[in-house]
Amino acid sequence: MGRSPCCEKSHTNKGAWTKEEDDRLIAYIRAHGEGCWRSLPKAAGLLRCGKSCRLRWINYLRPDLKRGNFTEEEDELVIKLHSLLGNKWSLIAGRLPGRTDNEIKNYWNTHIRRKLLNRGIDPATHRPLNDSPVHQDVSSTISFNGVKQEKNEIIDNNPSKEERCPDLNLDLRISPPYHRTQQPADSFKTGAKPLCFFCSLGVKNSKECTCTIDTAAASSSGNNTNNSGYDFLGLKTGFLDFRSLEMK
DNA sequence: AATGCGTCCAACCGCCCCCTA
DNA sequence: ATAGGGGGCGGTTGGACGCAT
User: Fold this and answer.
1) Residue A68, CB, strand B, below 7 Å
2) Whole-number distance in Å between A170 CA and B20 C1'
3) Distance (Å) from CA A206 to C1' C1?
4) What does the alpha-carbon distance between residue A194 and residue A218 come to, in Å, rounded to a whole number?
5) Where are the domains of chain A?
6) Residue numbers 179-208 of A with CB closer than 7 A to any atom of strand B
7) Are β-strands A240-241 and A173-174 bridged in parallel, bridged antiparallel, or unpaired?
8) Which nucleotides of B are covered by protein (CB under 7 A)?
């Protein structure tokens, strides 16, 4: 017994969307906002699966989408983020305003993969193609555990530890997401604690999350004020300079 | 003009996670 | 505590298009 289908497939259209369907979806969302995708098609008079409506809206109809070619800066940012996050397209998209995960995924597979291959870099590992597998790390991409390890190394301030992914020199600074999460100014006003690295990336309830730890510590000590000095990564620096995570 | 091939990208599929009752 | 539902995500597919032969 599998789970119940998200919609009655026999009564739904599939394939390319028509102009009329687009108009109906846009009009409905303008009037009612993004709500329950499952019930939206019926309410909007669309013979579509709710998921299909969601995808169409997010990837194509949303008014804040940036259409057109990727800039060189966007290219490089995607490459850097991919080297850090792997195929977490939604997280990568969260750092590129106006770009969708689907768009970035397609762009990666069609353009950037080839670009990296031309540079002699394996797009999956971000290592030189002729690099012997014997010398490669077990993980094909930099995992969150790897990030945690790096973060701990910073905190430990121990420069003697071995570097990961030595071929990569990531001159990357991660800033809070452009959208989706709100915090910044208000959190300072209200005294709310800035998000840790994992929360800032949109990873919910991560085991690595330091927000809850700090919050618990703060509440247990009766101290509910902002832990000033910690940035959104949960580090004591003003920002995380990924040069300190250099993988050269 | 017809055909074959490669590329691009919108859309689908199925799994997973999270929330809620 | 847990099962079920809904939403989100990543992988994959297939049709449209352009170019070469």
Assistant:
1) no
2) 42
3) 21
4) 13
5) 9-61, 72-127, 173-238
6) 204-205
7) antiparallel
8) 7-19
- pLDDT tens-place values along chain A, 248 residues long: 334 455 655 567 888 899 889 898 999 888 888 878 888 888 888 888 888 998 899 888 988 888 788 888 888 899 988 888 888 888 888 888 889 989 998 898 888 888 888 888 888 888 887 765 544 443 334 433 333 333 333 333 333 333 344 344 434 444 444 443 333 333 333 344 445 555 554 444 444 455 444 444 433 333 333 333 333 333 333 333 333 333 33
A231 touches strand B (CB under 7 A): no
Closest nt to residue A61, judged CA to C1' = B10
Same topology for domains A9-61 and A72-127, yes or no?
yes
Superfamily for domain range A9-61: Homeodomain-like (1.10.10.60)
Nucleotide nearest A15, from its CA to each C1': B11
* Rounded distance between C-alpha atoms, residue A232 and residue A104, angstroms: 25
Q: Is the overall model pTM greater than 0.90, yes or no? A: no
Q: Does residue A66 reach within 7 angstroms of strand B, measured from its CB? A: no
CATH number of A72-127: 1.10.10.60
Strand C close residues, chain A 52-111, CB < 7 angstroms:
54-55, 87-91, 101-102, 105-106, 109
